[in-house]
Amino acid sequence: MPALNTANVVFLGLGLISGSLAMALRRSGWQGELSAWGPREPSLEQGLKMGVIDRYDLDLGRAIQGAEALVIGAPPMATAELLGVVLDLLQRSGEQPIVTDLASMKGWIVDRALPRYSRFVPGHPIAGSENSGVTAARADLFDGREAILTPEAFTDTNAVAWVTSMWQRVGSRVTTMSVADHDAALAASSHSPHMMAYALTMVLADDPLAPMQHGGGALRDMTRIAASDPIMWRDVALTNRAALVSALESVEQELANLRELIARGDGPPLERYFEKCRSVRRAHDAVLNPLFESSESSVISAATGTGEGQESS
After folding, report:
1. What residues make up the domain containing 239?
2. Whole-angstrom distance, CA of residue 97 vs CA of residue 10
3. Are residues 164 and 134 in the same domain?
4. Looking at the domain assignment, is residue 124 inside a domain?
5. CA–CA dist 84, 86 (Å, integer)
6. Cα radius of gyration (the chain)
7. Do 188 and 150 belong to one domain?
8. What are the two backbone dihedrals, phi and then psi, of residue 223, each rounded to the nearest 5 degrees?
9. Does this model's pTM top 0.85?
């Protein structure tokens, strides 16, 4: 396995997440070369100008030659397609770098990871922004955030250990789970909230009262992620379809329950419902707001009776 802080890492696709990872590695004292390949030269030129990468190459075969680790940072469908091309190139060249990806669903990717390659470690950092592109990259994006790995039975344990250490080096806490569990959990925790944000935004888009012009913090927080990259979220919806539909059905049922409570006009059950939701949310503040300063939280709690923080998508 390559040494952790001297490996030459090649990013295949340079955007918000991959660019942030490169910046975070450099912040950690990474001594190896950080280079990139991508289909759009302006993004690569921007990354070079920003100091995110040391160099780039527009030829994929040449870009990965001699790499010790490859990080695929592309939309989900493009990740699966690119991974297949990369694994084929590696099989023909005989080189065996560690390969990992950043896509937010794993089943679609793993099923298409052919030919099978023991040093491929499927990964998903739970961090992001409604902004996209390398210009939005930042070195602290992963501080306190979770990174999920979904290795298979045949995955090289040394490769898993290396990728685990890489994520820990940039400030993440690492969880390992099965592909199926990951996709079901993320459908509930990330993918369905995005779909709800899109649906709410669509409801308000053509309302003659123009409610978007009269919104405050609640509307801002609920619709922020509707400004996310449409291509990525199209891919998420299509590639994690079954788990996402199941998660949305659960939300629809709960909305029906809440609507019934409101329609009945019965205050005590509504209050109990809202109190349970508040307790659940507050019990997870440390996970959802890992870097929220306790002093700031105390000020907000005293002023408003809440412990709000900023969600990371």
Report:
1. 178-264
2. 10
3. yes
4. yes
5. 5
6. 21
7. no
8. -110, 0
9. no
Residues 32-86 pLDDT 10s: 999 999 998 999 999 999 999 999 999 999 999 999 999 999 988 999 999 999 9
Say how far apart CA 96 and CA 2 lie, in whole Å.
11
Cβ within 8 Å of residue 96, ≥6 positions away:
90, 119
311: in domain:
no
Paired tokens of 176: 């390992």
Q: For residues 161 and 297, which has the higher predicted lDDT (pLDDT)?
A: 161
Q: Are residues 255 and 293 in the same domain?
A: no
pLDDT band at 296 (very low <50, low <70, confident <90, very high): very low
When the pLDDT of each residue in the chain is averaged and rounded to a whole number, the result is 90
Same domain, 164 and 79: yes
Give 12's strand partners.
37, 72
- Quote the pLDDT of residue 114: 87
